[in-house]
Amino acid sequence: MSQNLEAPGKPGLDARWTSSTKSGIGKALNPASDVTFTLSHGILNEAYYPREDIACLRDMGFIVTDGHEFFSEEKRDTEHQIKTLKDGIPAYRIVNTDRFNKYQITKEVIIDPFKNTILQHITFDQKDPNLPLRLFALLAPHLNNEGGNNTGWLGCYKGVEMFFAENGDIALAMACSSKWIKRSVGYVGTSDGWLDIRQHGELKWQYDSAIKGNIACTGEIDVTEKEFVLAISFGRTHTEAANHARASILNGFDTAKKRYIQEWQIWQNTLPKISATNFKMSAAILRMHEAKNFPGGIIASLSIPWGGYKR
User: Fold this and answer.
1) Strands (E), the chain
2) What pLDDT is recorded for position 3?
3) Omega before 11 within 30 of 0, i.e. cis
4) Is the torsion defined by CA of 38, 40, 42, 43 positive or negative?
5) Cβ pair 90, 264 in contact under 8 A
6) For residues 248 and 250, what is the distance between their CA atoms, to the nearest angstrom?
């Protein structure tokens, strides 16, 4: 943090969880990964680490602007289409199309089987080449089952610019294969990126940190190359999380995707040969609810059942 400029407006609005209505969940079978993700409204929302009952994200989605009057939030202002990449395997392709047909965001979402990393391969298509659009990633950490006591900051790990957040003994890092044009960490509802972009069409507030509050991390992504990879990683320290994020991006999305799908296919081959519709996916969902580190344990639901509850 070069300026060490803390965001104003601490601690932000009361923290709330997102909808418990899910359209997908994902988890690697490999014991090297302890992360689970959920999907809803076309975006990533609650992620769990290091156990299936410890939520660490509220959500992560995109905002699109033209720098002036046009403002579009992916989860609210697009039509969503979602399907699995392979039959019965919890790897997803999501297509979010702006209702005004100005842009389309296509993403593939998986877990890196060898890292504590959620990987998203993103394609950003602008429909009108004469109307250049700007793309912002908005991440809301809710580490350690808590939304109101998170600390976030901007940093760099081995030459890679990242966002960091921590709460207690759990930390998060977010990195991008494309360049961050601008970054900021703020308090939700008072100095966060959503409010800044809504008011100004861009990130004018560039704060380096937000301490012990309801925080949001916002970064403008260079879309010169319309395809990029986002890595959201977890660890017991921010350096551990950063190491996972950097390694996942360097190893490549396709490598992780191939192994992730392959391991699920190997497991599927052990299932009874039942031709019922959605049998494979139903079996996978049950498997993902099982605890990796507590044999025989199973969680009731990979969601926050009380949704908007404050915590």
Assistant:
1) 24-27, 36-40, 43-48, 57-65, 71-73, 78-86, 89-98, 103-111, 117-126, 134-141, 150-157, 160-167, 170-176, 180-187, 209-213, 215-221, 227-235
2) 57
3) yes
4) negative
5) yes
6) 6
pLDDT at 21: 86
Q: Looking at the whole model, is its pTM more than 0.85?
A: yes
Grouping H, G, I as helix, E, B as strand and the rest as coil, residue 249 is helix
- Rounded to 5 degrees, what angle do the CA atoms 62, 9, 205 make? 50
Tokens, residue 48: 């769990």
What pLDDT digit, counting tens, does each position of 240-287 carry?
Answer: 999 999 999 999 999 999 999 999 999 999 999 888 878 999 999 999
Degrees, nearest 5: CA angle 248-252-256:
75
The rounded distance, in Å, linking the Cα atoms of 180 and 35 is 25
Q: How far is CA 285 from CA 29, 33, 52, in A?
A: 12, 17, 13
Lowest mean pLDDT among 42-51, 82-91, 192-201, 294-303: 294-303
* Residue 152 contacts residue 165 (beta carbons within 8 Å): yes
Q: Tell me the pLDDT band of 239, cut-offs 50, 70 and 90.
A: very high
Whether the pLDDT of residue 305 is over 70: the answer is: no
- CB distance 89 to 268 below 8 Å: yes
Amino acid at position 138, single letter: L
Q: How far apart are CA 53 and CA 145, in angstroms?
A: 8
CB neighbour list of residue 255: distance below 8 Å, 6 or more residues apart = none
Cα dihedral 300/58/264/236 (nearest 10): -100
